[in-house]
Automatic annotation (TrEMBL):
The lineage of its organism: Archaea, Methanobacteriati, Methanobacteriota, Stenosarchaea group, Halobacteria. Its EC number is 2.7.13.3. It is an enzyme of class 2 (transferase). InterPro entries: 2C_sensor_his_kinase, HATPase_C_sf, MEDS_domain. Keywords: ATP-binding, Kinase, Nucleotide-binding, Transferase. It comes from Halolamina pelagica. This is histidine kinase. GO terms for molecular function: ATP binding; protein histidine kinase activity. Residues 30-188 form the MEDS domain.
Length: 452
């Protein structure tokens, strides 16, 4: 492989947690395709996919051809899968693809029947369905043309569409020709490329694929879809340009003007001749200006940092500890109590630090003299998720903030007073976490995936 390929592979391996996050927050179609250039990339993506199936109570069947069972098991173990235990429980089966597909000759009807039976057996055994991952290099061992293999895949899609099975076909870009890859793209609703789960604009449903005389040369379809994608991309670029201009004005010009206003207010406050009422008015104006400056700084952080975070395994105790210490420095009169076992690793955005600091600090600011304590409760008893609840007794989150964040959009009538809760929500949900605001209004609840 050339140097560019090596760099690309290392980038794919580093972003494997992102693929896991995409699996968790997506509803997978019944038929996906993985396109890869190296065995490392292939096995990392396949192991992430199988891990998703096991976590979601699917029996997993891996059909091997290019890789040995030992290589597959090693990749699965590296992804946190206990292969021995899962195999013993019959949750995971690793079989030779050639034995399944070619043992009695290539017979599409027989193969579909095998998949149906395997899916039914999985459901009968108490699983939610069957998840299959197959190395498609088995097709090199048959005299059947690749078109017949793809016809089988289209027939699989069309047959029993409600069957609870999800299949991942794996294509080595260095071994399949461009024509075969183009046809494979046509027959898979979603694809995995560079460890990214992609919507496939070139997918053809089975009936359309079979009705198209020359599916890999359907130029009109490709041109129309390419045109639509280009228009969408142009619209996004124009919108991002407008947002960048507005953001720059808010971050720089408005902030500078507010600092000038604050300077004049400070000078007025120092005048000895001010009446007590005027002093209160000035203090109120300064408080509002400080809030605006803080919001401007938060908007700057959102613009500069939020999109650059990556999904990583983070020690919750360390991250939460920093957030609590910052809140104590900002509000020395606040009592912040942390309950529960924090020694757990979570899969989260690297900006989780900032989100928890925002949340704990906001709670500390919301406390009253009668209710000075902020409570941070960590519950890591779940198998897949770790829950964090931050609250103050009698803390009432403004109803506008609650509705805007819960409904996921700002409207003329329902809009949040600031960026704080949005800020936390965007960071938490960037890696399949969730943020909820319980109806009792007493706390903010965050659920993060436990690192495997």
């Amino acid at each position: 492989m050339d140097a560019a390929g090596d760099v690309e592979t290392s980038q794919e391996l580093r972003t494997a947690p992102h693929l896991r996050a995409e699996f968790e927050r997506s509803t997978l179609p019944r038929h996906l395709a993985l396109f890869y250039r190296s065995p490392e990339t292939q096995l990392t993506a396949a192991a992430t996919y199988v891990g998703y199936g096991l976590r979601n109570d699917r029996r997993c069947l891996y059909l091997a051809d290019d890789n040995t069972p030992a290589q597959i098991e090693s990749a699965f173990e590296a992804a946190g899968i206990d292969v021995a235990a899962r195999t013993a429980a019959d949750d995971l089966r690793i079989r030779d693809a050639g034995e399944v597909y070619l043992d009695a000759g290539f017979d599409p009807d027989r193969l579909i029947s095998i998949l149906k039976d395997a899916c039914k057996a999985a459901v009968d055994d108490g699983y939610d369905g069957l998840l299959v991952a197959g190395e498609n290099t088995w097709s090199f061992h048959t005299d059947t043309s690749f078109d017949h293999v793809l016809d089988f895949e289209a027939d699989f899609d069309a047959d029993s569409p409600n069957m609870p099975v999800t299949a991942l076909c794996q294509y080595d870009l260095s071994r399949f020709c461009e024509s075969s890859i183009a046809k494979a793209i046509r027959t898979h609703e979603r694809i995995i490329y560079r460890n990214t789960l992609c919507e496939n604009p070139y997918y053809l449903p089975p009936t359309e694929y079979r009705a198209t005389e020359d599916p890999d040369l359907n130029v009109r379809l490709m041109l129309e879809q390419t045109h639509d994608l280009a228009r969408s991309r142009q619209q996004v670029e124009r919108r991002e340009q407008r947002l960048a201009v507005v953001n720059r004005v808010l971050r720089h010009n408005v902030r500078n003007e507010m600092n000038v206003i604050r300077g004049y207010l400070d000078r007025l406050r120092s005048e000895a001749s001010l009446r007590p009422a005027a002093e209160r008015w000035i203090e109120t104006a300064i408080d509002h200006l400080d809030d605006m400056v803080e919001m401007s700084d938060k908007a700057r952080y959102v613009q500069d940092s939020l999109g650059s975070g990556t999904a990583e395994h983070l020690d919750l105790g360390t991250v939460l500890g920093r957030a609590v210490e910052q809140a104590r420095r900002d509000y020395p009169g606040a009592t912040i109590e942390v309950h529960g076992e924090t020694g757990v690793s979570v899969l989260a955005d690297t900006n989780l630090d900032a989100a928890l600091t925002e949340l704990v600090t906001t709670a500390a600011a919301a406390r009253s003299e009668d209710q000075p304590a902020v409570t941070v409760l960590v519950d890591n008893s779940g198998v897949e998720r770790v829950r964090i609840e931050v609250g103050v007794p009698e803390w009432e989150i403004p109803e506008n903030d609650r509705r805007a964040v819960q409904e996921g959009e700002e409207t003329k009538l329902e809009h949040a007073d600031g960026l704080g809760l949005w800020f936390v929500k965007w960071i938490v949900e960037s890696t399949q976490g969730t943020m909820t605001l319980p109806d009792d209004g007493a706390d903010v609840r965050i659920d993060l995936p436990r690192a495997q």
